[in-house]
Design goal:
Distance between the termini: 36 Å
Strand order of the largest sheet: 1-2-3
Number of helices: 13
Oligomer: single chain
CATH class of the largest domain: Alpha Beta
Number of domains: 2
Structural class: mainly alpha
Number of strands: 5
Order of helices and strands: EHEHHEHHHHEHEHHHHH
Radius of gyration: 21 Å
Bound molecules: adenosine-5'-triphosphate, L-tryptophanamide
Shape: globular
Length: about 325
């Protein structure tokens, strides 16, 4: 049994990339009887401007989605980051051992800082340190993340080791678990880049809340190629990506799906794929809506989760405060 932890930003739309890359793996790990921790990182979300009303709505939506996907709040500690103050407290302490140079090398920061010049916020720069605090606070052993978060995890490991060397063994050095299946669903309009909610066009992604018509339209216009053969060939990014999505939503191997479309064109394939996506989304959407209609229940779940997380965090912080010499 391992302590497994991951977190997602409550930043609005969740797409099928987020679902298969981040949420569904957590559901599987929960069923394997691990000690799971999952939270919505609202203090990471505010590293870029957020409208307060939107942020609140997105928090409800994020939690409703995890529950709809099968996260069981009895088995997984499910909460909201800002409710456990120890995250920001530990981030401050880690700030005092983190180096400017190592943060300046973070590619996510460099990407997000583009065009901001001197006005880039300290929060955006410090994002990876808060993430390290999220992880180290709970004696986390395994962190399932997408490929894009590998560098942040490396920093968390470095900070754990540096702290341990300076103040004595305190933190577990966490291992990343980079997903293989579903790790990278690509954009429908540009299959060379990952599906992303911050893409310039809505055509890039299938949101978990897209209605039938939207799904049909987006799949119809998804980029393929002129070969007209449905085959899982990595070199043909567009069709490869659509086949992966087909496989994920139906749970059938791509090799089997290929056979069904031998001698048929992309038209039939796309029509069926849209249908399969809609069949897959319908029950999830119903459940999300059900949870959102009962905010009181969501609040109770989050209260209970925060209480459990806080108990663990407080234990850890007692040790940390003592190690650095602030407890008298
Ligand atoms: P943005 O596109 O705005 O950077 P995002 O869609 O990447 O946002 P995040 O909140 O950064 O979403 O990531 C949430 C989780 O979803 C992370 O674990 C990330 O690795 C995973 N994820 C994001 N996009 C994909 C994708 N296209 N395929 C698989 N997993 C993804
Ligand atoms: N940066 C992560 C979100 C995140 C996270 C974490 C992931 C914040 N804290 C701790 C794993 C563990 C992202 O997916 N964008």
């Amino acid at each position: 049994m391992s302590r497994i932890l991951t977190a997602l930003q409550p930043s609005g739309i969740l797409h099928i990339g987020n679902y298969f890359g981040a949420i569904e793996p957590m559901v599987r790990l929960q069923e394997e009887g691990n000690e799971n921790i999952l939270f919505a990182v609202d203090y990471h979300a505010i590293t870029v401007p957020q409208d307060p009303g939107d942020l609140r709505a997105n928090l409800y939506y994020a939690i409703a989605t995890y529950l709809a996907a099968g996260i069981d709040p009895e088995k997984t500690i499910l909460f909201q980051q800002s409710r456990v103050r120890e995250h920001t407290e530990l981030a401050w302490i880690l700030n005092c051992i983190a180096h400017m140079g190592e943060l300046e090398r973070m590619t996510q920061f460099k990407d997000k800082a583009v065009g901001k010049g001197e006005a880039v916020t300290v929060g955006l720069f410090d994002y990876p340190v808060l993430m390290a605090a999220d992880i180290l606070l709970y004696d986390t052993e395994v962190v399932p993340v997408g490929e894009d978060q590998k560098q942040h995890l490396e920093l968390a490991r470095d900070l754990a080791e540096r702290f341990n060397n300076r103040f004595g063994d305190t933190f577990i050095v966490p291992e990343p678990r980079i997903r293989t299946q579903g790790a990278r669903i690509m954009g429908l309009d540009d299959p060379t880049k990952k599906m992303s909610k911050s893409a310039s066009s809505e055509r890039n992604y299938i949101s978990l809340m897209d209605d039938e018509k939207k799904v049909i339209k987006k799949i119809k216009t998804a980029v393929t190629d002129s070969e007209g053969i449905v085959k899982a060939d990595r070199a043909r990014e567009g069709i490869f990506n659509l086949l992966s999505i087909y496989s994920l939503v139906t749970g059938r191997p791509a090799s089997e799906i290929e056979v069904d479309y031998e001698g048929k064109g992309y038209g039939d394939f796309k029509k069926d794929l849209a249908g399969e996506i809609n069949t897959f989304l319908a029950p999830i959407q119903d459940k999300i809506t059900e949870y959102l209609d009962d905010k009181q229940q969501l609040i109770e779940i989050l209260d209970a989760g925060a209480e459990r997380a806080q108990a663990l965090a407080e234990e850890k912080m007692k040790v940390v405060r003592d190690r650095i010499g602030v407890t008298l």
